[in-house]
Amino acid sequence: MEALYFPAVSGVRAQQVRLDTIAHNLANLETDGFKAARADFTAVPPQEYRVARAGEAPLGPVPIGSGVELSATTRQFTLGPVEVTGDPFDLALAGPDTFVATELPDGTTAFRRSGRLSIDATGRLVFEDGSLLQPPLVLPAGAQLDRIAPDGTVFVRAAGSGDAQPIGRLELVRFPNPQGLLVAGQGRWIATEAAGQPETGAPGEGNWPPVLSGVREHSNVDLVDQMTQLIMAQRAYTANLRSLQTIDELIEIATRLRQ
Cβ distance 172 to 189 under 8 Å? Predict the structure, then answer.
């Protein structure tokens, strides 16, 4: 008898996960570099049961569906809308699945696609969350950031100097399976074994995309799409709850008839 509940119960759980995923996407609508997530589900293999009508020999085995289960939560690594600010401290990447490495204040290596740079007390380039750009780039005392070229070369201008001078070059990172990256919040990801061995390269060389200086990449969450998915998930959640109620009522009727 419990098997009758399984499809509807799994449906309720699946739609709850879907609702939570959509809510997380909507909460990050304004997070630069954020990539929308999608909950994917797969059918649970049916279970075989022996069934029978009153006064008849059992039939079976008869396969009865067991519902669905979460198969994966995938990230949509498509390029988000870009905003041209003209500020050299704003940084974004042209490629959809490339990152720059940073070191968080606790020493953890994280990866991000967009953000606003600043200069810390020691002259190092850091992002707004305090994470240090990797490999580190240190500006000479009194120098200011002039621009970051498409090939990742960082130019600074010393006080009283008319010419901008290069101090280093950004390094890009990508993974064989970016879906395996762990989301760390604020548009950051942490490497895992599932993501594979990272590969590094120089912006604009080979198949590596250029760096976009003076540009910010916004979240790729589509508000209209997410609201549509939200309505559909709410309707599916309600329908599965009603299925549970209907099954319960039918079982109650069958129990009364047997009495």
Answer: no
Q: Encoding tokens for residue 167?
A: 């101090």
The continuous run of DSSP H or E covering 177 comes out as none
Q: Exposure string (b/e) for 238-253, b if CB count within 10 Å is 16 or more? A: eebeebbeebeeeeee
Segment 23-36, tens digit of pLDDT = 999 999 998 889 99
**Tokens at residue 83, please?**
């905003």
Structural contact between residues 29 and 218, judged by C-beta atoms closer than 8 angstroms: no
Q: Dump strand ranges (E) for 214-253.
A: 215-217
* CA-based torsion, 123, 127, 131, 133: positive or negative: negative
Q: For residue 42, what are the contacts with CB-CB under 8 A and spacing of at least 6?
A: 68, 69, 71
Rg of the chain over CA atoms, in angstroms?
A: 27
pLDDT per position as a tens digit, 147-177: 999 999 999 988 777 788 999 999 999 999 9
CA neighbours closer than 13 Å in the CB half-sphere of residue 15: 19
Tokens of 255: 């129990």
Judged by phi (left if over 0) then psi (alpha if -120 to 50, else beta), residue 43 lies in beta
CB atoms within 10 A of CB 66: 16
User: Can you state the percent helix, strand and coil of the chain, rounding each to 5?
Assistant: 25, 35, 40
Q: What are phi and psi of 82, to 5 degrees?
A: -110, 145
Pairing of strands 59-64, 47-51: antiparallel
pTM: 0.80
